[in-house]
Design a protein that fits this description.
alpha/beta; elongated
Length: 392
Protein backbone atom coordinates (compact mmCIF):
# COMPACT_ATOMS: atom_id res chain seq x y z
CA UNK A 1 0.00 0.00 0.00
CA UNK A 2 1.17 3.60 -0.53
CA UNK A 3 2.79 5.29 2.43
CA UNK A 4 -0.08 7.67 3.19
CA UNK A 5 -0.16 7.98 6.98
CA UNK A 6 3.50 7.55 7.87
CA UNK A 7 6.27 10.11 8.11
CA UNK A 8 7.79 8.88 4.87
CA UNK A 9 7.37 10.61 1.55
CA UNK A 10 4.11 9.80 -0.25
CA UNK A 11 4.48 7.84 -3.49
CA UNK A 12 4.03 9.93 -6.61
CA UNK A 13 1.85 8.82 -9.57
CA UNK A 14 1.96 10.14 -13.10
CA UNK A 15 -0.97 12.00 -14.63
CA UNK A 16 -1.40 9.23 -17.19
CA UNK A 17 -1.69 6.65 -14.38
CA UNK A 18 -4.34 8.73 -12.57
CA UNK A 19 -6.38 9.30 -15.74
CA UNK A 20 -6.37 5.61 -16.63
CA UNK A 21 -7.34 4.62 -13.09
CA UNK A 22 -10.26 7.09 -13.14
CA UNK A 23 -11.44 5.88 -16.55
CA UNK A 24 -11.34 2.25 -15.43
CA UNK A 25 -13.32 3.10 -12.30
CA UNK A 26 -16.06 4.63 -14.47
CA UNK A 27 -16.61 1.44 -16.45
CA UNK A 28 -19.98 -0.22 -15.72
CA UNK A 29 -18.64 -3.62 -14.62
CA UNK A 30 -16.02 -2.20 -12.26
CA UNK A 31 -16.14 -0.55 -8.84
CA UNK A 32 -13.88 2.00 -7.13
CA UNK A 33 -12.91 -0.56 -4.52
CA UNK A 34 -12.08 -3.24 -7.09
CA UNK A 35 -9.90 -0.91 -9.21
CA UNK A 36 -8.14 0.41 -6.10
CA UNK A 37 -7.33 -3.12 -4.92
CA UNK A 38 -6.02 -4.10 -8.35
CA UNK A 39 -3.75 -1.00 -8.54
CA UNK A 40 -2.66 -1.31 -4.90
CA UNK A 41 -3.87 2.16 -3.96
CA UNK A 42 -6.26 3.35 -1.29
CA UNK A 43 -9.91 3.77 -2.39
CA UNK A 44 -9.94 7.26 -0.85
CA UNK A 45 -7.06 8.27 -3.12
CA UNK A 46 -8.91 6.99 -6.20
CA UNK A 47 -12.05 8.87 -5.10
CA UNK A 48 -9.97 12.06 -4.81
CA UNK A 49 -8.58 11.54 -8.32
CA UNK A 50 -12.12 11.08 -9.65
CA UNK A 51 -13.10 14.39 -8.06
CA UNK A 52 -10.03 16.17 -9.49
CA UNK A 53 -10.78 14.59 -12.87
CA UNK A 54 -14.29 16.09 -12.83
CA UNK A 55 -12.95 19.49 -11.76
CA UNK A 56 -10.32 19.47 -14.54
CA UNK A 57 -7.32 19.80 -12.21
CA UNK A 58 -5.18 17.57 -14.41
CA UNK A 59 -5.16 16.84 -18.11
CA UNK A 60 -7.95 14.53 -19.26
CA UNK A 61 -6.30 13.11 -22.32
CA UNK A 62 -6.78 9.43 -22.99
CA UNK A 63 -3.83 7.16 -22.55
CA UNK A 64 -3.52 4.86 -25.51
CA UNK A 65 -1.58 2.16 -23.73
CA UNK A 66 -1.96 1.27 -20.09
CA UNK A 67 0.94 0.01 -18.01
CA UNK A 68 1.29 -3.73 -18.61
CA UNK A 69 1.46 -4.60 -14.91
CA UNK A 70 -1.59 -2.52 -13.98
CA UNK A 71 -3.58 -3.96 -16.89
CA UNK A 72 -2.73 -7.51 -15.76
CA UNK A 73 -3.74 -6.71 -12.21
CA UNK A 74 -7.10 -5.37 -13.39
CA UNK A 75 -7.66 -8.47 -15.50
CA UNK A 76 -6.87 -10.80 -12.60
CA UNK A 77 -9.20 -8.90 -10.28
CA UNK A 78 -12.01 -9.08 -12.85
CA UNK A 79 -11.52 -12.84 -13.09
CA UNK A 80 -11.61 -13.20 -9.30
CA UNK A 81 -14.82 -11.19 -9.10
CA UNK A 82 -16.36 -13.29 -11.87
CA UNK A 83 -15.50 -16.51 -10.07
CA UNK A 84 -16.93 -15.16 -6.82
CA UNK A 85 -20.20 -14.32 -8.55
CA UNK A 86 -20.28 -17.77 -10.14
CA UNK A 87 -19.69 -19.51 -6.80
CA UNK A 88 -22.45 -17.43 -5.18
CA UNK A 89 -24.86 -18.36 -7.99
CA UNK A 90 -24.00 -22.05 -7.65
CA UNK A 91 -24.51 -21.95 -3.89
CA UNK A 92 -27.88 -20.29 -4.33
CA UNK A 93 -28.88 -22.83 -6.97
CA UNK A 94 -27.83 -25.65 -4.65
CA UNK A 95 -30.03 -24.21 -1.87
CA UNK A 96 -32.96 -24.03 -4.27
CA UNK A 97 -32.39 -27.64 -5.39
CA UNK A 98 -32.54 -28.84 -1.78
CA UNK A 99 -35.94 -27.21 -1.29
CA UNK A 100 -37.42 -27.87 -4.71
CA UNK A 101 -39.61 -30.99 -5.12
CA UNK A 102 -41.43 -29.85 -8.24
CA UNK A 103 -40.24 -32.46 -10.72
CA UNK A 104 -43.03 -33.31 -13.13
CA UNK A 105 -45.46 -30.68 -11.82
CA UNK A 106 -47.05 -27.75 -13.62
CA UNK A 107 -46.25 -24.07 -13.68
CA UNK A 108 -48.78 -23.31 -10.95
CA UNK A 109 -46.80 -25.41 -8.46
CA UNK A 110 -43.61 -23.69 -9.62
CA UNK A 111 -45.20 -20.26 -9.08
CA UNK A 112 -46.29 -21.31 -5.59
CA UNK A 113 -42.74 -22.40 -4.81
CA UNK A 114 -41.39 -19.06 -6.06
CA UNK A 115 -43.92 -17.16 -3.94
CA UNK A 116 -42.91 -19.09 -0.84
CA UNK A 117 -39.13 -18.56 -1.28
CA UNK A 118 -39.03 -15.26 -3.13
CA UNK A 119 -37.68 -13.23 -0.20
CA UNK A 120 -34.78 -15.58 0.38
CA UNK A 121 -33.58 -16.23 -3.18
CA UNK A 122 -35.23 -13.57 -5.32
CA UNK A 123 -37.76 -14.00 -8.12
CA UNK A 124 -35.20 -13.78 -10.92
CA UNK A 125 -33.02 -16.65 -9.66
CA UNK A 126 -36.02 -18.86 -8.87
CA UNK A 127 -37.60 -18.32 -12.28
CA UNK A 128 -34.31 -19.11 -13.99
CA UNK A 129 -33.86 -22.32 -12.02
CA UNK A 130 -37.45 -23.52 -12.50
CA UNK A 131 -37.43 -22.51 -16.18
CA UNK A 132 -40.50 -20.27 -16.00
CA UNK A 133 -40.89 -16.68 -17.14
CA UNK A 134 -40.94 -13.80 -14.70
CA UNK A 135 -43.78 -12.17 -16.61
CA UNK A 136 -45.82 -15.34 -16.19
CA UNK A 137 -45.06 -15.44 -12.48
CA UNK A 138 -46.03 -11.79 -11.93
CA UNK A 139 -49.22 -12.31 -13.95
CA UNK A 140 -50.06 -15.28 -11.68
CA UNK A 141 -49.16 -13.39 -8.49
CA UNK A 142 -51.29 -10.36 -9.42
CA UNK A 143 -54.23 -12.44 -10.61
CA UNK A 144 -57.35 -12.40 -8.46
CA UNK A 145 -57.61 -15.73 -6.56
CA UNK A 146 -60.11 -18.24 -7.88
CA UNK A 147 -63.14 -19.37 -5.93
CA UNK A 148 -61.43 -22.68 -5.16
CA UNK A 149 -58.31 -20.91 -3.88
CA UNK A 150 -60.41 -18.67 -1.65
CA UNK A 151 -62.23 -21.69 -0.26
CA UNK A 152 -58.93 -23.47 0.38
CA UNK A 153 -57.59 -20.43 2.23
CA UNK A 154 -60.68 -20.32 4.45
CA UNK A 155 -60.53 -24.09 5.03
CA UNK A 156 -56.83 -23.88 5.84
CA UNK A 157 -57.57 -21.46 8.69
CA UNK A 158 -60.06 -23.94 10.18
CA UNK A 159 -57.60 -26.81 9.77
CA UNK A 160 -54.84 -24.80 11.42
CA UNK A 161 -57.11 -23.87 14.32
CA UNK A 162 -58.09 -27.52 14.92
CA UNK A 163 -54.49 -28.71 14.54
CA UNK A 164 -53.18 -26.13 17.01
CA UNK A 165 -55.99 -26.89 19.48
CA UNK A 166 -54.74 -30.48 19.61
CA UNK A 167 -51.22 -29.31 20.33
CA UNK A 168 -50.04 -30.60 16.96
CA UNK A 169 -51.10 -34.14 17.89
CA UNK A 170 -53.84 -34.65 15.29
CA UNK A 171 -53.17 -36.06 11.84
CA UNK A 172 -55.50 -35.56 8.88
CA UNK A 173 -58.07 -38.28 9.87
CA UNK A 174 -58.74 -36.71 13.28
CA UNK A 175 -58.67 -33.15 11.92
CA UNK A 176 -61.21 -34.25 9.31
CA UNK A 177 -63.47 -35.80 11.97
CA UNK A 178 -63.16 -32.72 14.19
CA UNK A 179 -64.20 -30.47 11.29
CA UNK A 180 -67.18 -32.69 10.56
CA UNK A 181 -68.28 -32.39 14.20
CA UNK A 182 -68.24 -28.63 13.69
CA UNK A 183 -70.47 -28.96 10.64
CA UNK A 184 -67.77 -28.31 8.02
CA UNK A 185 -68.53 -30.15 4.77
CA UNK A 186 -65.19 -31.22 3.34
CA UNK A 187 -63.52 -34.33 1.93
CA UNK A 188 -60.87 -36.22 3.92
CA UNK A 189 -58.43 -36.26 0.99
CA UNK A 190 -58.69 -32.49 0.66
CA UNK A 191 -57.85 -32.02 4.33
CA UNK A 192 -54.92 -34.41 4.01
CA UNK A 193 -53.59 -32.58 0.94
CA UNK A 194 -53.75 -29.13 2.54
CA UNK A 195 -52.09 -30.40 5.71
CA UNK A 196 -49.35 -32.06 3.68
CA UNK A 197 -48.72 -28.91 1.60
CA UNK A 198 -48.39 -26.77 4.73
CA UNK A 199 -46.30 -29.24 6.72
CA UNK A 200 -48.87 -30.19 9.39
CA UNK A 201 -48.17 -33.73 10.64
CA UNK A 202 -49.23 -35.64 13.73
CA UNK A 203 -46.61 -36.12 16.40
CA UNK A 204 -45.89 -39.85 16.62
CA UNK A 205 -43.07 -42.09 17.75
CA UNK A 206 -42.19 -45.76 17.63
CA UNK A 207 -42.23 -47.73 20.87
CA UNK A 208 -40.00 -50.77 21.09
CA UNK A 209 -40.24 -53.42 23.78
CA UNK A 210 -37.38 -55.87 24.22
CA UNK A 211 -38.71 -59.34 24.92
CA UNK A 212 -37.08 -61.31 27.69
CA UNK A 213 -35.36 -64.48 26.56
CA UNK A 214 -36.33 -66.19 29.80
CA UNK A 215 -39.83 -67.67 29.70
CA UNK A 216 -40.81 -67.85 33.35
CA UNK A 217 -44.05 -69.82 33.52
CA UNK A 218 -44.19 -69.93 37.31
CA UNK A 219 -47.19 -68.27 38.95
CA UNK A 220 -48.64 -67.14 35.61
CA UNK A 221 -52.30 -67.13 34.65
CA UNK A 222 -54.01 -67.88 31.33
CA UNK A 223 -55.23 -65.21 28.94
CA UNK A 224 -58.97 -65.17 29.63
CA UNK A 225 -59.51 -62.37 27.10
CA UNK A 226 -59.11 -64.81 24.22
CA UNK A 227 -62.37 -66.55 25.16
CA UNK A 228 -64.30 -63.44 26.22
CA UNK A 229 -66.51 -61.26 24.02
CA UNK A 230 -65.77 -57.56 23.81
CA UNK A 231 -67.03 -55.54 26.79
CA UNK A 232 -70.44 -53.93 26.36
CA UNK A 233 -70.25 -51.49 29.27
CA UNK A 234 -67.76 -49.82 31.58
CA UNK A 235 -66.07 -51.73 34.41
CA UNK A 236 -66.29 -55.11 32.68
CA UNK A 237 -62.72 -55.40 31.32
CA UNK A 238 -59.73 -53.44 32.58
CA UNK A 239 -56.14 -53.56 31.40
CA UNK A 240 -52.95 -52.32 33.05
CA UNK A 241 -49.26 -51.96 32.32
CA UNK A 242 -46.14 -49.98 33.26
CA UNK A 243 -43.78 -48.08 30.96
CA UNK A 244 -40.53 -46.22 31.57
CA UNK A 245 -39.88 -42.55 30.82
CA UNK A 246 -36.42 -41.02 30.62
CA UNK A 247 -35.99 -38.01 32.93
CA UNK A 248 -32.54 -36.49 32.61
CA UNK A 249 -30.03 -39.28 33.29
CA UNK A 250 -32.46 -41.60 35.05
CA UNK A 251 -35.72 -43.38 34.32
CA UNK A 252 -39.07 -43.02 36.04
CA UNK A 253 -42.11 -45.26 35.65
CA UNK A 254 -45.73 -44.66 34.65
CA UNK A 255 -48.44 -47.18 35.53
CA UNK A 256 -51.98 -46.91 34.14
CA UNK A 257 -55.29 -48.74 34.43
CA UNK A 258 -57.42 -48.52 31.27
CA UNK A 259 -61.10 -49.41 30.76
CA UNK A 260 -61.19 -51.52 27.59
CA UNK A 261 -64.78 -50.50 26.79
CA UNK A 262 -64.20 -46.74 26.51
CA UNK A 263 -60.35 -46.61 26.40
CA UNK A 264 -60.54 -44.21 29.34
CA UNK A 265 -57.59 -44.02 31.70
CA UNK A 266 -59.21 -44.90 35.02
CA UNK A 267 -56.12 -44.24 37.15
CA UNK A 268 -52.43 -43.59 36.73
CA UNK A 269 -49.33 -43.14 38.88
CA UNK A 270 -45.83 -41.79 38.25
CA UNK A 271 -42.94 -42.90 40.45
CA UNK A 272 -39.21 -43.49 40.65
CA UNK A 273 -39.34 -47.15 41.75
CA UNK A 274 -40.98 -50.08 40.01
CA UNK A 275 -42.30 -52.64 42.48
CA UNK A 276 -45.49 -54.34 43.57
CA UNK A 277 -46.48 -51.47 45.87
CA UNK A 278 -46.29 -49.05 42.96
CA UNK A 279 -48.62 -50.98 40.64
CA UNK A 280 -50.91 -51.98 43.53
CA UNK A 281 -51.42 -48.33 44.52
CA UNK A 282 -52.50 -47.55 40.94
CA UNK A 283 -54.97 -50.43 41.04
CA UNK A 284 -56.29 -49.44 44.48
CA UNK A 285 -57.01 -45.92 43.19
CA UNK A 286 -58.93 -47.38 40.23
CA UNK A 287 -61.12 -49.45 42.57
CA UNK A 288 -61.81 -46.39 44.70
CA UNK A 289 -62.73 -44.21 41.69
CA UNK A 290 -64.90 -46.68 39.71
CA UNK A 291 -66.10 -49.20 42.35
CA UNK A 292 -66.61 -52.09 39.87
CA UNK A 293 -68.98 -54.95 40.55
CA UNK A 294 -67.58 -58.44 41.29
CA UNK A 295 -66.46 -60.39 38.23
CA UNK A 296 -64.29 -57.69 36.62
CA UNK A 297 -61.71 -59.08 34.18
CA UNK A 298 -58.31 -57.49 34.83
CA UNK A 299 -55.65 -58.11 32.15
CA UNK A 300 -51.91 -57.40 32.48
CA UNK A 301 -48.57 -58.60 31.20
CA UNK A 302 -46.52 -61.23 33.04
CA UNK A 303 -44.59 -58.71 35.17
CA UNK A 304 -43.58 -59.71 38.68
CA UNK A 305 -45.30 -56.63 40.09
CA UNK A 306 -48.67 -58.10 39.03
CA UNK A 307 -47.85 -61.65 40.16
CA UNK A 308 -46.84 -60.52 43.67
CA UNK A 309 -48.79 -61.98 46.60
CA UNK A 310 -50.03 -58.55 47.78
CA UNK A 311 -51.36 -57.69 44.33
CA UNK A 312 -53.10 -61.05 44.03
CA UNK A 313 -54.63 -60.57 47.49
CA UNK A 314 -56.04 -57.16 46.46
CA UNK A 315 -57.58 -58.64 43.31
CA UNK A 316 -59.07 -61.50 45.29
CA UNK A 317 -60.51 -59.04 47.80
CA UNK A 318 -62.45 -57.27 45.01
CA UNK A 319 -63.43 -60.59 43.34
CA UNK A 320 -61.48 -59.81 40.18
CA UNK A 321 -60.42 -62.39 37.56
CA UNK A 322 -56.79 -61.84 36.63
CA UNK A 323 -55.79 -62.48 33.00
CA UNK A 324 -52.21 -62.39 31.65
CA UNK A 325 -50.47 -62.19 28.30
CA UNK A 326 -49.35 -65.37 26.62
CA UNK A 327 -45.55 -65.84 26.68
CA UNK A 328 -43.94 -63.52 24.11
CA UNK A 329 -47.27 -61.98 23.06
CA UNK A 330 -47.15 -58.32 24.16
CA UNK A 331 -49.91 -57.56 21.64
CA UNK A 332 -52.37 -59.33 23.95
CA UNK A 333 -52.32 -56.04 25.86
CA UNK A 334 -52.44 -53.92 22.71
CA UNK A 335 -54.76 -51.21 24.04
CA UNK A 336 -52.41 -50.09 26.80
CA UNK A 337 -49.40 -50.44 24.50
CA UNK A 338 -51.21 -48.19 22.03
CA UNK A 339 -51.84 -45.62 24.76
CA UNK A 340 -48.17 -45.55 25.72
CA UNK A 341 -47.19 -45.08 22.06
CA UNK A 342 -49.68 -42.21 21.78
CA UNK A 343 -48.48 -40.58 24.99
CA UNK A 344 -44.83 -40.73 24.02
CA UNK A 345 -45.47 -39.49 20.51
CA UNK A 346 -47.87 -36.67 21.35
CA UNK A 347 -46.34 -35.42 24.62
CA UNK A 348 -42.93 -36.81 25.57
CA UNK A 349 -41.30 -36.83 22.12
CA UNK A 350 -41.73 -33.07 21.60
CA UNK A 351 -40.98 -31.88 25.15
CA UNK A 352 -38.06 -32.20 27.55
CA UNK A 353 -38.60 -32.27 31.30
CA UNK A 354 -36.23 -31.45 34.11
CA UNK A 355 -38.03 -32.42 37.34
CA UNK A 356 -40.43 -35.18 38.30
CA UNK A 357 -42.93 -32.58 39.47
CA UNK A 358 -42.91 -30.88 36.07
CA UNK A 359 -43.34 -34.21 34.27
CA UNK A 360 -46.22 -35.21 36.56
CA UNK A 361 -48.04 -31.92 35.88
CA UNK A 362 -47.79 -32.35 32.09
CA UNK A 363 -48.87 -36.01 32.19
CA UNK A 364 -51.82 -35.10 34.41
CA UNK A 365 -52.94 -32.41 31.98
CA UNK A 366 -52.50 -34.77 29.02
CA UNK A 367 -54.48 -37.66 30.53
CA UNK A 368 -57.15 -35.88 32.56
CA UNK A 369 -57.83 -32.96 30.19
CA UNK A 370 -56.80 -33.94 26.67
CA UNK A 371 -56.83 -37.74 26.35
CA UNK A 372 -59.96 -38.58 28.35
CA UNK A 373 -62.03 -35.51 27.47
CA UNK A 374 -60.88 -34.04 24.14
CA UNK A 375 -58.94 -36.52 22.02
CA UNK A 376 -60.98 -38.21 19.27
CA UNK A 377 -60.38 -42.00 19.20
CA UNK A 378 -60.75 -43.80 15.89
CA UNK A 379 -61.70 -47.01 17.72
CA UNK A 380 -64.63 -45.20 19.34
CA UNK A 381 -66.03 -43.76 16.13
CA UNK A 382 -64.01 -40.57 16.62
CA UNK A 383 -65.49 -39.81 20.02
CA UNK A 384 -63.73 -39.02 23.27
CA UNK A 385 -63.67 -41.69 26.02
CA UNK A 386 -65.82 -39.54 28.30
CA UNK A 387 -68.32 -38.88 25.50
CA UNK A 388 -68.42 -42.59 24.60
CA UNK A 389 -69.24 -43.55 28.19
CA UNK A 390 -71.99 -40.95 28.42
CA UNK A 391 -73.85 -42.15 25.30
CA UNK A 392 -73.55 -45.85 26.17
Amino acid sequence: MPEMITGKKTQQYSTEFKVKAVEWSHQAHRSVKGVAEALDIHPFMLSRWRKEYREGKFAMKRVKKAPVKAKQQIKEQDEINRLKRQVAELQEENDILKKSTLSGRGTTEAFRFIWKHRRQHGVKALCRHLNVSRSGYYAWANRKPSLRASENAELLLKIRRTYNASGGRYGSPRVYQALRREGVEVGENRVARLMREWGMKARVTRVYRQMSKRRDAAKTLPNYRLDEAKPEAINQHWSSDVTYIKLGRKYVFLAVVLDLFSRRIVSWRLGENLNADFSRATLREAFKTRQPAPGLLFHTDRGIEYRAHKTQALLKQHQVRHSMNRPGQCTDNAEVESFFKTLKGELLEATSFVTLRQLRRHISNYIEVFYNRQRLHSGLGYRTPLEFEEIN
